[in-house]
Amino acid sequence: MTTAAVSLPRKRVSLPRVVKSEWIKFWSVRSSVITLGVAVLLLVGFGLLASSLYGSPSQGGPPGGEPTDPVGASLTGTNFAMLAFGTLGVLLTAGEYSTGMIRSSMTAVPKRLPVLWAKIAVFTGVVFVAALAASAVAFTAGQALIGDAGASWSDPGVARAVIGTAVVMTGCGLLGMGLGALMRSTPGAITTLFGVMFLLAMVAALLIPDSWSDLVQYLPSEAADSFTALTQAEGALSPWAGLSVFAGYVVAVIGAAAWRIKRSDV
């Protein structure tokens, strides 16, 4: 008596299938969902708190200084949310290296780079939608709290500031993804991201000569601020030049991460 061997059809590895796998993986990991929720709550919560205190001479407002305009008040939580979204990006890449899950991913997708592109696609879609919704809620509800002194969507630069906030937070998360894949260390990547986005400009302003002070505007944090600022400070980049510079940093880091993934062992 003989038994016939049953061979199951093997599906070809394609980018859409890898994206679907990363989508399932994103929502299956509890830390991803929690970090995403924390980022949204930080943006909305601090924005509503600052908006409720806006214009009150007896209140100093939340950490980070008192906002100088109603739009800035409602988006006060941007820096806090940016760090959370950046941490989420780091966890999606460096976290897999620390747990060893990356070996399974790369075994299933031998060409390697589709895994990175799929992670980027999933992360960008989820984070941009979440950040845009949170920014819109923070701005709309914040202006309602401010009242007559508030701004409206039709005011010059407002739509760019609100939508640009979502763009910058997504870009910060992508920087985190790139640093995580490049450094393969969660603490190291988070520390580097924090230093680049929150400390580098301050340190550079203190240390570089006055003749080189114009270079500060080309740092990632300053370029991002130029894109989201309601009014441009003297000597700052124009909004679209700021976006181009910031996007250049994101592309460079992602490119370096792709090079290491392609060239080095898991």
TrEMBL record:
Protein name per its UniProtKB record = ABC transporter permease
Q: Where do transmembrane segments lie in this chain?
A: 33-54, 74-95, 116-141, 161-182, 189-208, 240-259
Q: Does the keyword Membrane apply?
A: yes
| Record organism | Glycomyces rhizosphaerae
Keyword line: Membrane, Transmembrane, Transmembrane helix
